[in-house]
From TrEMBL:
UniProt-listed NCBIfam families: not_thiJ
Protein name per its UniProtKB record: DJ-1/PfpI family protein
Matching SUPFAM superfamilies: Class I glutamine amidotransferase-like
PANTHER family in the record: PARKINSON DISEASE PROTEIN 7 HOMOLOG, PROTEIN/NUCLEIC ACID DEGLYCASE DJ-1-RELATED
Pfam families: DJ-1_PfpI
Organism listed in the record: Campylobacter massiliensis
Domain DJ-1/PfpI intervals: 2-163
Cited Gene3D superfamilies: 3.40.50.880
GO CC, any one term: cytoplasm
Amino acid sequence: MKKVAVIFADGFEEIEGVSIVDVLRRGGVEAHIVGLDKLPITGAHGVKFVCDMTLYDLEIEEYDMLVLPGGYTGVTNISGNLKMRETIKKFDKKGKFVAAICAAPIALGVAEIMRGEYTCYPSCEASVEGGTYVSDKNVVQSGNIITSKGPATAMEFALELVKVLNGEQVYNEVKNGLLFVK
């Protein structure tokens, strides 16, 4: 079974984080909620979450993908955390998937791994170091890096992550079960 670490930091965008974890689990992926620096995390809209572990408990070798939900405050917290930047770099160096939505591609730029095409929340591209911004796609994959625009594209993004990890058949089963229409 594929394993994914989804990072929740104080101020993250709840709809993105929850959609990603839910859809991945529906797709047969073992998705762990990883608190940036503590177990209870408060999202951008005041929703509280108890995480499975913290970043300091994460064993990179056990995971196939790292996912960063957006939310500007959450991304600021992620970008400012040295351990998180090192973790992003390690996932990338090992050729593992690194996925980011909304403002989170900023953190990929701060970690100096952004290259190729990407998308993000409109206006955040001015803060992303590296890569080439694409505005006309909801989800963009460039090598091992997968990006998406924001809250309204979270379900589509999560489904693409399922496809990358578990293939077209599982993707279609989950998509149809969710009544997702694109």
